[in-house]
Amino acid sequence: MRRLSLVLAALIATISIAQAQEAGSGSDIAPAQARTMAQLLAEGYEIKGTAQASSRYIVFMQKEKSAYACQFVTVTTTRCGLIN
């Protein structure tokens, strides 16, 4: 059951990231929502889970009631979006 919820969250995160990419340069995304994994770790977010979506990896991070899903674009580049 936990694995299913992680997979569903990965799917939602992937869709959210794809929609953000389609929106253009992302200027309509609030700065609080568009982050990198390094920024989130520096702000005290903790890694709560991971999932593999096709050939991409999604990492779920949480701090109190705020949660992000981060997609690895390359080995060193991540793109994170707010999921709640």
Q: What share of the residues lie within helices?
A: 25-40%
Class inferred from helices and paired strands: alpha+beta
Distance between the termini: 20 Å
Provide the low-confidence segments as ranges.
18-29
Total domain modules? 1
Number of helices: 2
Q: What characterizes the major β-sheet?
A: 4 strands, antiparallel
Our Rg estimate from Cα atoms comes to 12 Å
User: Judging from the principal axes of the Cα atoms, what is the shape?
Assistant: globular
Model description:
Keywords: Signal. Residues 1-20 form the signal peptide. With 84 residues, the protein is of the alpha+beta class. The chain has one domain (2-82). It has two helices and four strands, in the order H-H-E-E-E-E. The chain has a four-stranded antiparallel beta sheet. The longest helix is centred in the first third of the chain and has 21 residues, at 2-22. Residues 18-29 have low confidence and may be disordered.
